[in-house]
């Protein structure tokens, strides 16, 4: 396959590999060609291929197994057709028996960090819409949510954004996009000064961190969320269906 010169080589490789996952050329759960095989086929360096694969791994679309190879994540493909897998913070609060509300803390435009660019399949220097929001249960702060969205997804002026809307409505109204699935990584962390300021309690106490990657149609990365969850007030329950 030849590479054209209208876009950067790295960007074209990103698009080629992503499209092959989207259209099923690389089937769910299948082993992908090696870095050297892709390098030879596409006529690019192994470093370029390695970077593209790192971006896909950061979004959860592929899994890299040491000494075994790279595989398309079968669970991502399955999740894409089940919107019920989306972690909904509003439903989480209301499911605990509280009335939910959202307070917008800040909405700003800034350059993506290296980690954010990898997770959202962006180029270095691309800009993000950064939203900091506070979720409340019966008026009590329980979740500090920080979300970043590729700025080029916006279809309306940034100043028009209502940060108190549900994330699904924000994408529908301001980006003309629909969230189809999300991948959530849950881990325990300690409360930092920012979380302490808005959630209260002692800095350094244990708290849950929920990192959420949101996707749209054709596995398009839409947003990255970092949420700090006060599990001393809310219970986090996971329901699984066993076949």
Notes on the protein architecture:
This protein is an alpha+beta fold and 243 residues long. It has 8 helices and 8 strands; from the N terminus they run αααββααβαββαβαββ. A 6-stranded antiparallel beta sheet has the order 3-4-5-8-7-6. A two-stranded antiparallel sheet has the order 1-2. The model is unreliable at 77-86 (pLDDT under 50). It folds into 2 domains: 9-79, Arc Repressor Mutant, subunit A (Orthogonal Bundle), CATH 1.10.10.10; 83-229, Chorismate lyase (3-Layer(aba) Sandwich), CATH 3.40.1410. α1 crosses α3 and α2 crosses α3 (46-58). Helices cover 29% and strands 29% of the residues.
| Rounded radius of gyration (Å) | 19 Å
- Name the strands of the widest sheet in spatial order: 3-4-5-8-7-6
CATH H-level superfamily title of the largest domain: Chorismate lyase-like
How many H/I helical runs? 8
Which secondary-structure class do the elements indicate?
A: alpha+beta
Question: Which fold name corresponds to the CATH topology of the largest domain?
Answer: Chorismate lyase
Arithmetic mean pLDDT:
84
Q: Which ranges are low-confidence, i.e. pLDDT below 50, for 5 or more consecutive residues?
A: 77-86
Order of helices and strands: HHHEEHHEHEEHEHEE
């Amino acid at each position: 396959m030849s590479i054209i010169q209208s876009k950067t080589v790295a960007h074209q490789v990103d698009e080629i590999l992503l499209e092959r996952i989207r259209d099923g050329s690389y089937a769910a759960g299948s082993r992908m060609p090696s870095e050297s095989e892709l390098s030879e086929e596409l006529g690019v360096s192994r470093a370029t291929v390695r970077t593209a694969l790192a971006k896909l791994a950061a979004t959860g679309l592929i899994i890299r197994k040491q000494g075994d190879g790279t595989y398309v994540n079968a669970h991502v493909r399955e999740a894409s057709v089940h919107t019920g897998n989306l972690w909904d913070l509003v439903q989480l609060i209301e499911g605990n028996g509280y009335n939910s509300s959202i307070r917008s803390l800040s909405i700003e435009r800034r350059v993506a960090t290296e980690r954010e660019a990898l997770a959202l399949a962006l180029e270095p220097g691309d800009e993000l819409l950064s939203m900091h929001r506070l979720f409340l249960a019966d008026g009590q702060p329980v979740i500090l949510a920080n979300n970043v969205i590729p700025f080029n997804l916006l279809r309306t002026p940034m100043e028009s954004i209502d940060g108190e809307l549900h994330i699904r409505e924000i994408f529908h109204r301001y980006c003309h996009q629909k969230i189809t699935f999300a991948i959530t990584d849950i881990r325990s962390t300690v409360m930092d000064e920012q979380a302490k300021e808005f959630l209260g309690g002692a800095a350094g106490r244990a708290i849950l961190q929920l990192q959420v990657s949101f996707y749209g149609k054709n596995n398009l990365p839409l947003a990255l969320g970092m949420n700090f969850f006060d599990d001393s007030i809310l219970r986090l329950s996971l329901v699984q269906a066993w076949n």
